[in-house]
Design goal:
By secondary structure, this protein is an alpha/beta fold. The chain is built from 20 helices and 26 strands. An eight-stranded antiparallel β-sheet has the order 3-2-4-1-10-9-11-14, covered by helices on one side. The structure holds 6-O-phosphono-alpha-D-glucopyranose.
Length: 612
C-alpha cells in the first residue's frame, strides 16, 4: 500500500507534500517521511503518522521547491524510523519513495553487497535505490535512464519517485501494479498515488500505465517512456473531484460522514440509470454487451473484503432475478487455483479503490483466458476500470474512512440494478415485479435517511455492549452476507472479535460460545424464514445470550424476545441488505468511538491494499 506524493514547481514543496500525505494516509500510516531538495537532500522520517513527522522536521532544512513524501504500510521490515521512506543511495545523493513490493530484493541485495553496497534498513526499497545508484555510476547515466534500466531487473510491484540532490529541477517516477498519477498544474507538477493531493492545484492528470517511467522537469517538459525505452503518447485527462469531498465536513470522523452520506450516495449511484415511472433501467456499461450478459452461462464475481460481501449478495440477486448460475470468489483464491473460465462466462470484478492487487490480478488472469470482464468500481480512473472490458462506476465519491460503508451500499445498488435489468432482459421477472423493484430501489435513499435518524438509539445499544470481547452476527438468505459485513465492521474498527454466520449454522459450532456475556446481533428482517429466525433467537436466549435484533417495523414478536431491537422500514427482501447494513455500520462506529479507537485509521489496516 503506502502513499506517495512529489512536487516540483515554484512554491515551497514541504507544505504541499505534508498536506498531500495527510490525504493519502488512508493508504497506510505506520511511518512517514519527506525529502526536500535545496542543494542537498534533506530527509526526515519517523515511525508514526504524518503529524508525528511534522514534530521531527527541522524547519530551516525543508525550504525548497522540489521534494517528495511517503506514508507507509509496512511490508518488509517493521515500522520504525530506519525502515520509513524515503530511502537513500549509498552516497546519500539519491532518494526514493516506493509503494509496492520488490519480490527479488534478496537476490538483488546479495549481488549489490558483493559490489560493496551496505544497507541500513530491512526494506526492499533501499535495495532498489542502491541498484539505481550502481547502474547510474557504472554507466554514467541520467537518473531516468538508470531508473529505467534498474526496473528491468525488478520483479514485483512498484510506484516510485526518485530524486537526485544534484538535480533539483527534475523528478522521476515509475509504476507497475501500484498506481501513480501525474498532475499538470500551472507551472507546478505533481506525482501522487491518487489525485487527492493534486485536485487543489489542477484537474489535469495523466494516469501512468504499468512499466512506464516519467521524467518531469521544472519548466514543465515531461517525457514518458516504457521501461523498454519506447516513447509513449499519453492522454491528459480532466478529473472531476472537488476538495470539499475530501474534507470531514463537520463530522467527527470520515466514517461517520460517509455513513451519513448514504442517502445521497445511493441516489448518485442510480442517477440517470432508472425510472420506475417510465419503467426503464439501464447501465451504460452493459448496453453494448447485453447479448453477452443475456447468453452468459455463468457469472463469476470476484473481490476482497467488504466488496466481497457485496458480491455475495449479488449471487443471491443474479440467481433469483436472472436465473444465471453465479459464483463468488475471493480474488486471492481465484487467481491461484487455475479456475475454469469459458468464453460464455461473465466475470464481474468489484472494488472500491480499483487498485486492490489481488482483484487486479484476478482480472488479468480472467482476461488472459479470454473472459469478458465487467468492473464495478468507485475510484474513477483507477487501474481496474482501465483493465476491464466494460463496467459501471458506483459514484459514491471519495471514501476515506478505512472501513468501507458508503461504497458497499453503492456497490449493492449497482449490483441490484444489474440483476433487475438482467432478470427483465431474460424475461425471468414479470413486468409488474420489474416496476415494483425499480420503484422500491428508488425509495432506498429516503428509507436509509429514516434509519440514520435512529442513531441515538443505536448509540445507546452500543454503550450497553461496548465492553464485550466477542460478538456473533447471524443472518439468513440475503442477510447472511450482511451478518458477515456487520462482523467485519466491528472487528476492523473496534478490535472486538466478531464472527458472521448463517443463522441456522449457529447450532453447528458457534452456539458453544454463547453465554450471558455474548452479544448476538441477529438480522431478522426476512419475511421468508421468519419463523426459523424466531427459533434461532430463542436458541440464543435459552443460553442467556444478549440479542440485538434488526427487525422490520411492526415486528412485535421478535421485539418481545430480544434484549434490544432496531426497527427498519419494510422493503422487498432482495433489497433489504441496503437497509439492514446501516444500523450495523452505526453500531460498530459508536462502539469503536466509545472504546477510544481510531475509527478512520484502524491499526494494521489500509484502505487500498496494493500488495498481494
Ligand atoms: C481493504 C479495505 C476494505 C476493502 C478491501 C477491498 O481491506 O480496508 O475496506 O473492502 O480492502 O478493497 P477494494 O478497494 O477492492 O474494495
Amino acid at each position: 500500500m503506502c502513499g506517495i506524493v512529489a512536487y516540483v514547481g515554484s512554491k515551497e514543496a514541504y507544505p504541499i507534500i505534508i498536506e498531500g500525505l495527510k490525504r493519502l494516509e488512508y493508504r497506510g500510516y505506520d511511518s512517514a517521511g519527506v525529502s526536500i531538495l535545496n542543494g542537498t537532500m534533506n530527509t526526515f522520517k519517523c515511525k508514526g503518522k504524518v503529524t508525528d513527522l511534522e514534530q521531527v522536521i527541522v524547519k530551516e532544512k525543508i525550504k525548497g521547491t522540489a521534494g517528495m513524501g511517503h506514508t507507509r504500510w509496512a511490508t518488509h521490515g517493521v515500522p520504525n524510523n530506519i525502515n520509513a521512506h524515503p530511502h537513500l543511495s549509498g552516497d546519500g545523493n539519491l532518494a526514493i519513495v516506493h509503494n509496492g513490493i520488490i519480490e527479488n530484493y534478496g537476490t538483488l541485495r546479495t549481488a549489490l553487497e558483493k559490489l560493496g553496497h551496505s544497507f541500513v534498513s530491512d526494506t526492499d526499497t533501499e535495495v532498489l535505490i542502491h541498484l539505481i545508484e550502481e547502474i547510474r555510476n557504472t554507466n554514467d547515466l541520467s537518473l531516468e535512464e538508470a531508473t529505467r534500466r534498474a526496473l528491468q531487473k525488478v520483479v514485483g510491484a512498484y510506484a516510485i519517485v526518485v530524486l537526485d540532490a544534484n538535480d533539483p529541477d527534475k523528478i522521476v517516477g515509475a509504476k507497475k501494479s501500484s498506481p501513480l498519477v501525474f498532475g499538470l498544474g500551472d507551472g507546478e507538477y505533481f506525482l501522487a498515488s491518487d489525485a487527492s493531493p493534486i485536485v487543489k492545484y489542477t484537474d489535469k492528470v495523466i494516469y501512468l500505465e504499468d512499466e512506464e517511467v516519467i521524467t518531469i522537469h521544472r519548466n514543465g517538459d515531461y517525457e514518458i517512456r516504457t521501461i523498454e525505452n519506447e516513447l509513449t503518447d499519453p492522454e491528459v485527462q480532466q478529473i472531476d473531484l472537488n476538495i470539499e469531498e475530501l474534507e470531514k465536513g463537520g463530522y467527527e470522523h470520515y466514517m461517520l460522514k460517509e455513513i451519513y452520506q448514504q442517502p445521497q450516495t445511493i441516489a448518485e449511484s442510480m442517477r440517470g440509470r432508472l425510472s420506475a415511472d417510465e419503467g426503464w433501467a439501464k447501465l451504460g456499461g452493459m448496453e453494448q454487451h447485453l447479448t453477452r450478459f443475456k447468453n452468459a452461462k455463468r457469472i463469476i464475481l470476484t473481490a476482497c473484503g467488504t466488496s466481497w460481501h457485496a458480491a455475495m449478495i449479488a449471487e443471491y440477486l443474479f440467481e433469483e432475478f436472472a436465473r444465471i448460475p453465479t459464483e463468488v470468489e475471493y480474488a486471492s483464491e481465484f487467481r491461484y487455483r487455475n479456475p475454469i473460465i469459458t468464453p460464455d462466462d461473465v466475470i464481474i470484478a468489484l472494488s472500491q479503490s480499483g487498485e486492490t492487487a489481488d482483484t487486479l490480478a484476478a482480472v488479468k488472469l480472467a482476461k488472459s483466458k479470454g473472459a469478458f470482464i465487467y468492473g464495478i468500481v468507485n475510484n474513477v480512473g483507477s487501474t481496474i476500470p482501465r483493465t476491464t472490458d466494460s463496467g459501471s462506476y458506483i459514484h459514491a465519491g471519495p471514501e476515506i474512512g478505512v472501513a468501507s460503508t458508503k461504497a458497499f451500499t453503492s456497490q449493492l445498488t449497482v449490483l441490484t440494478l444489474m440483476a433487475i435489468i438482467l432478470g427483465h432482459l431474460k424475461g425471468k421477472i414479470s413486468e409488474g415485479y420489474y416496476r415494483q423493484l425499480l420503484s422500491e430501489l428508488e425509495s432506498v435513499p429516503s428509507l436509509v435517511a429514516k434509519i440514520l435518524a435512529k442513531a441515538d438509539q443505536i448509540k445507546y445499544i452500543a454503550g450497553e455492549i461496548r465492553n464485550t470481547s466477542n460478538a456473533l452476527y447471524l443472518g439468513r438468505g440475503y442477510n447472511f452476507p450482511v451478518a458477515l459485513e456487520g462482523a467485519l465492521k466491528l472487528k476492523e474498527i473496534s478490535y472486538i472479535h466478531a464472527e458472521g454466520y448463517p443463522a441456522a449454522e449457529m447450532k453447528h459450532g458457534p452456539i458453544a460460545l454463547i453465554d450471558m456475556y455474548m452479544p448476538v446481533v441477529v438480522i431478522a428482517t426476512n419475511k421468508s424464514a421468519h419463523e426459523k429466525i424466531v427459533s434461532n433467537i430463542q436458541e440464543v436466549k435459552a443460553r442467556k445470550g444478549i440479542v440485538v435484533a434488526i427487525v422490520t417495523e411492526g415486528d412485535t414478536r421478535i421485539k418481545e424476545m430480544a434484549d434490544f431491537t432496531i426497527e427498519i422500514p419494510y422493503i422487498e427482501e432482495p433489497l433489504s441488505p441496503l437497509l439492514s447494513v446501516i444500523p450495523l455500520q452505526l453500531l460498530s462506529y459508536y462502539i469503536a468511538v466509545m472504546r477510544g479507537c481510531n475509527v478512520d485509521q484502524p491499526r494494521n489496516l489500509a484502505k487500498s491494499v496494493t500488495v498481494e
